[in-house]
Design brief:
By secondary structure, this protein is α/β, with parallel strands linked by helices. It has helices spanning 11-22, 51-64, 74-90, 97-116, 150-153, 158-162, 173-182, 204-212; strands at 2-6, 26-33, 68-72, 121-123, 128-133, 136-141, 164-165, 217-221, 227-231, 258-263, 268-272, 279-289, 297-304, 307-317, 320-329, 337-342, 345-355.
Length: 356
């Protein structure tokens, strides 16, 4: 096949591209320039998409002997990922920008351009397994549980998955680094990026405040209704948050308080005990269903990219997903995705709109 390898400048995408070459495909490497003013250097695992990353990707392509290009997707990234991120927080929701980037940039904007140029597939370094069952793509967890990225890929459509390649899904990360070194790839020991790429200093609250301004409101005890303090914007909080609440006095029982709910219209942040965070039901919209089923299905629900997993029963009703958890989960935030699995197979993904 003609394969377009998305090369971020990290070890995973470099080894994924190498495996595509080794499999006999005609591979072209491409680095996506996602910032109009990229920084010149990374600091350890802080951020990504810098000029250093672009140069690392180019050097990896040279080692592999494949053509390499840099494509400017900065405007599309700003519109579909950064502006969406800001708008979601302003509405009191907690988005996942990595999920949105996969959906809108790598497997919509990039894939559309790739197909228009005659490529058959886009290859990435994501940790997930992909196969074809009864003529349909089947997305499954990676064999490396600690690196599994099926959660952030589950919102991709059947057509997008049909044109995707994830060569690393059957390999653990440690072996990928060993393989990179054996292939002579200089990125073999490069640290992973653990931060939101467009907030390299990790200060999400400051980033949002610069764009949304200060919007003062009350911190309220969810049980008593007492005002415990003031804040500068609901965008500075997320459901389940414990630290940085700005409450001076301890709770009467001396136990920590957590964010329970955000009300952007009134500017109210409701806080309470950890027990109040527990939910047994999830409502979600805009489902992407990978495996058809009728009625109730026993499954596993996951509400965060790494963690937040519980046995559940789910059904699709009038275009929404209703999930009943067999075990309660804490810190389930509207705006995040709930992904349903049967064993390691992805059944569906949907955006959380409410909890019970």
């Amino acid at each position: 096949m003609r394969v377009l390898a998305a090369m971020s400048g990290g070890v995973d995408s470099a080894v994924a591209a190498a495996r595509a070459v080794e499999a006999g495909h005609e591979v072209v490497g491409v680095h996506l320039a996602l910032s109009a003013k990229p920084g010149t250097l990374r600091t350890g695992a802080r951020g990504c998409c810098t000029l250093e990353d672009a140069n690392d990707a180019r050097r990896a392509a040279d080692v592999l002997g494949i053509p390499f290009y840099v494509w400017d997707f900065a405007e599309r990234f700003t519109e579909d990922v950064i502006e969406d991120f800001v708008a979601e927080y302003a509405a009191g929701r907690t988005p996942n920008p990595c999920l949105r980037c996969n959906e809108k940039i790598k497997f919509e904007a990039l894939l559309d351009k790739a197909i228009a140029l005659g490529f058959d597939a886009v290859c990435t370094g994501h940790y997930a397994q992909l196969s074809t069952v009864d003529g349909r793509p089947e997305l499954r967890r990676s064999v490396d549980d600690g690196k599994d990225q099926s959660y952030v890929l589950a919102s991709l459509t059947e057509d997008q998955l049909a044109h995707a390649m994830f060569p690393l899904g059957d390999t653990v990360k440690e072996q990928v680094r060993v393989e990179a070194a054996e292939r002579g790839l200089a990125v073999a020991a490069k640290p992973d990026s653990h931060d939101i790429c467009f907030i390299p200093d990790g200060d999400t609250r400051s980033f949002l405040t610069k764009r949304l301004g200060e919007q003062a409101g009350d911190l309220v005890d969810a049980e008593t209704g007492a005002v415990l303090g003031r804040h500068t914007g609901v965008h500075g909080f997320t459901v389940g948050q414990r630290h940085g609440l700005g409450i001076d006095a301890p709770a009467p029982d001396g136990r920590p308080r957590y964010v329970l709910a955000l009300e952007p219209v009134s500017g109210t942040v409701r806080v309470g005990s950890a027990e109040k965070l527990a939910v047994t039901g999830i409502e979600a919209a805009q489902p992407v269903v990978h495996v058809d089923w009728d009625g109730l299905v026993e499954c596993t629900a996951q509400v965060r990219a790494h963690g937040g997993i519980a046995p559940a029963v789910a059904e699709v009703v009038d275009g929404s997903v209703q999930v009943t958890l067999r075990e309660p989960l804490r810190g389930v935030a509207p705006g995040q995705a709930v992904v349903l699995y049967r064993d390691d197979v992805v059944l569906a993904s949907a955006t959380i709109t409410g909890t019970r």
